[in-house]
Here is the input.
Amino acid sequence: MVQDVKPKRSLKVLQRRDLLYKVAQEEIKSYIISNQLKPGDAVPPETELAQQFNISRNSVREAVKSLETLGILEARPGSGLFVRNFSFDPILSNLGYGIMFDLKQVADVLEVRSVIECGMAERVLRAVVPEQLDRLRAVLARMRQLAERGEYSAEDDRLFHQVLNERLDNTLVSKVLDIFWVVFYQAKQRAAIPEPADPMETYERHAEIVEALEQDDVQGFQVAMARHHQGIRRRLKRAQELESQGGSGPERSP
Here is the structure.
């Protein structure tokens, strides 16, 4: 018995002359979807794509490179182009750098982080183990030592949240949460985002989170996390005010 083979959707000649590589990107994605290609399936080589699209090889190459960056295509030397196994990693890895020049977008990322961290409270408490608590207490101890000298460590703050969420068994959530730090670090390179006005207060907000974990208190955890995020919001708000005034230079958030 001969099986019916569904004919593949063909590529079409591209008509637009502006940003042809972007048009080529969309056409290649449509080709993959329409033909229901799976990871590992071959895509026509660059030479054939250029001929089908009636555009230059350089435009096709630029489109292919962009799709590689997005994790959609994989170029195998000597073999050709193939559909790649889907992963959020390339998108998430580039997200922080794509929005690093806008403090409003940094604030938006913080809002997403706040919703996730408060919303995952029950999951975090259910998953926490003694060894994890010991590591959180060790980070807290360093934060307190620095706070007593009037200092704050963003690296310890980031590590605290990484340890806090490491047992969620959801790598996507962990990566989305960590994007905030990438965005925040990049934003600090160009904007006068102030350090916490009172490092001891920042330490105490984190200590309240650990205390809620120890007591298995979901509501207390959510309240402590929300209070912690309020402090970061104040810092971003002050940075936006300074930016609107044309100000610069390090300072402490009020």
Remarks:
- The two ends are 78 Å apart (CA to CA).
- The chain has eleven helices and three strands.
- The domain at 20-83 is CATH 1.10.10.10 (Arc Repressor Mutant, subunit A).
- The chain has two domains: 20-83, 90-245.
